[in-house]
């Protein structure tokens, strides 16, 4: 008798346990289905018709040509000189997106630009890929794509950026106050990346595919000129702007970054 009561209790408990789990599995499945539907809905958005894809590509190319890669306050200088030159790079296809900048000019105190920079998002691409801005510049981050993006900077960045996931047509803004390099990524699309290089003064230039740079309106004096590339080692050179000459020429060769030695 005792055995049959025991068997009955165990069966009852097992039955209750199964029903309880099934209910929760169903709940979880419904949530999963909801997610799948959500993903499908988002994926559907990314599947563009041929015509839409062509329009998107045209928008991307237009943005690549038109969006500024340098934002600064124009400074008036008497007897301003020009620093010009060419950058060559090893291990990258073109010597483009190299930021050449003068490290210190006077006291490095210049009014922040009123003009905003723009980093747009089109066809899972940040445009421009590299932007150099003077300290205190605000950058607008529109989402002109057909899917949502989530812009953020990695933990090691000198300034934290976390714009969260946001919709097509939304514009977010960030003011960059510290002079340093800020990598930008997207939490949704691993292939997206960009760099903001924030600089202390308005004397900088971003190279195109030809590697040529030109920094105008620099007062005569002795300076340190640096060339930065996201993947290569930064090189710094001395440059003298003499009173009798209008230009100074400096060439750079950027190479692979040295590997960090492991601490023993
Ligand atoms: Cu994205």
Automatic annotation (TrEMBL):
Record Pfam families: CarboxypepD_reg (PF13620)
Swiss-Prot/TrEMBL keywords: Coiled coil, Signal
InterPro entries, per the entry: Carb-bd-like_fold (IPR013784), Cupredoxin (IPR008972)
Signal peptide positions (record): 1-19
Gene Ontology molecular-function annotations: carbohydrate binding
Coiled-coil regions, chain positions: 41-77
Chain segments annotated as transmembrane: none
Keyword Transferase: no
Name of the protein in question: Rhamnogalacturonan lyase domain-containing protein
Species, as recorded: Candidatus Scalindua rubra
């Amino acid at each position: 008798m005792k055995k049959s009561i025991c068997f009955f209790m165990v069966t009852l408990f097992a039955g209750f346990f199964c029903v309880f789990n099934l209910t929760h599995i169903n709940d979880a499945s419904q949530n999963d289905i909801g997610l799948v539907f959500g993903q499908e809905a988002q994926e559907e958005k990314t599947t563009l018709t041929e015509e839409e894809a062509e329009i998107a590509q045209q928008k991307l190319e237009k943005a690549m040509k038109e969006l500024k890669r340098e934002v600064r306050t124009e400074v008036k200088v008497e007897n301003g000189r020009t620093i010009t030159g060419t950058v060559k790079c090893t291990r990258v296809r073109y010597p483009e997106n190299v930021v050449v900048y003068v490290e210190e000019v006077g006291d490095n105190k210049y009014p922040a630009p009123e003009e905003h920079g723009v980093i747009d998002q089109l066809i899972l691409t940040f445009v421009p890929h590299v932007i150099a801005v003077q300290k205190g510049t605000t950058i607008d981050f529109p989402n002109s794509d057909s899917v949502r993006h989530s812009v953020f900077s990695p933990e090691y960045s000198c300034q934290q950026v976390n714009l969260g996931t946001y919709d097509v047509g939304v514009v977010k803004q960030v003011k960059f106050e510290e002079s340093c390099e800020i990598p930008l990524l997207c939490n949704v699309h691993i292939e997206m990346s960009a760099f903001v290089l924030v600089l202390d003064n308005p004397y900088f230039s971003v190279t195109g595919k030809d590697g040529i740079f030109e920094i105008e309106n620099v007062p005569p004096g002795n300076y340190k000129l640096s060339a930065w590339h996201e993947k290569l080692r930064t090189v710094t050179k001395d440059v003298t702007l003499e009173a009798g000459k209008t230009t100074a020429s400096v060439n750079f060769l950027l190479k692979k970054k040295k590997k960090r030695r492991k601490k023993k």
